[in-house]
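Structure tokens please, single chain.
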Amino acid sequence: MNRRIRLLLLTCVGIAAFIGASAAPALAAAPTATTGTASSVTDTSAVVSGTIDPQGQSITYQFQYGTTSNYGQSTAPVTLPASSNVGTFSAELTGLTPGTPYHYRIAITVATGSSGAVYYPGTIVGADAVFDTNTTGGGGGGGGGGGGSVQLGSNTVNVNGNTADVTFTCSSHSACTGTLTLTKTLNIGGTKIIAGAAKKGGHHKTRTVKLGSAHYSIAGGHTKKIKIELTKLAQNLLAVAKNGKLSATLTARSSSGQRVPKGKKVKLVKSTSHKKHHKK
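Here you go.
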């Protein structure tokens, strides 16, 4: 009798295990969401992107955004058909405040009712990312707002050989990119500048000449030394400058929306070590 009961119990356990295995198939790989970059940033709008690996599921995605990492706003949800192909998607954010940092991320869910869908609890989100809207009127230079800026480290610019070293800090959350240009306004006063040489016989006038330029790219929150190669004219002017110091104007043009120093007065100074080396 005891043997019969044991056999009956074992049989019931086996049937239950079989039914359980049939009812709960192995969980497929979960879809993934990766937050991408922000582009086409203006003072009131931006385009954000993200990459989705649907793992064969039908996915609904949207972008969450706001002025803090709590977000608070989101784009309209978009549902994609079931697919195993990784894709990159984007959405335009509008009605933003000028000169303001915005947090954003991509968020996805498995669409309900999709054929063969495996439920993944909650929402799958990408990492938090930040961009700064432009100040009103764009990023050409100067102006108010709080969208981050490129800041000059010192008004004294050391010159080593034919290169001027300018130290800049990017106070933005995102990278700062653009162009630096050194210029000088010459009061010619009876002389004219031709190929870097002073020659008598010109008319009394002023002329702004380019001393050098360079592109810059600085990670957000970092400081970097930018090297500007001086023109031949700049080298000649510095060679005859009193005490080896030449006043100039430094102008920055941003291509990433930050405020920049416009028309900043600086002084080019020959490196002491370079002068000693030259004397030898």
